[in-house]
Amino acid sequence: MNKRGRPSIGDLTVVPIERGRQRLEPPADLSATEASLFRSIVANCSPDHFVPSDVPLLVSYIQSTLLSRRAAKALATDAAALNVWDRATRMQATLATRLRLAPQARSDPKAVTRKLAAHRPSYYDTVATDDAG
């Protein structure tokens, strides 16, 4: 609870150490690839983004992401992989929204619309550059 009144000299000279939240660790039953992706996703979000109850949902997101990647590679040789890729990608998108990893889940639609209306791209941003000459 905060103190009332002016802070004392002692309060101003001592910098309190605030312990940050521990980042989630991958469950022990994940493969090395799954654990690596788990750590990458958790590290790229703020420390308070995930709570321990998010772990099962996060694991499902990681598994659907890896399944989607494998199915995309298999598309070159197996046309039936399209169905697997489609379902895995849909699940990935749904879970990303639920975990607030998707852009539309993190931002306010009104703010996005205002930023989009204020954005005026330069002509040079829209022209494809050709390094060939």
Please give a structural write-up.
The chain has 133 residues and is an all-alpha fold. The chain has a domain at 26-118. It has seven helices and no strands. The chain has helices at 9-13, 32-43, 55-74, 81-98, 103-106, 109-118, 123-126. Helix 3 runs antiparallel to helix 4 (81-98). The protein starts with 8 loop residues before the first helix and ends in a 7-residue tail after the last helix. The mean pLDDT is 84.
Gyration radius over CA: 23 Å
SS strand fraction: under 5%
SSE series: HHHHHHH
User: What is the average of the pLDDT values?
Assistant: 84
Helices, by number, come to 7
Total beta strands: 0
Terminal-residue CA separation: 67 Å
The helix/strand class is: mainly alpha
- How helical, in percent, are the residues? 40-55%
Unreliable runs, pLDDT <50, ≥5 residues?
none
Major β-sheet annotation: none
Given the C-alpha coordinates, what overall shape results?
A: flat
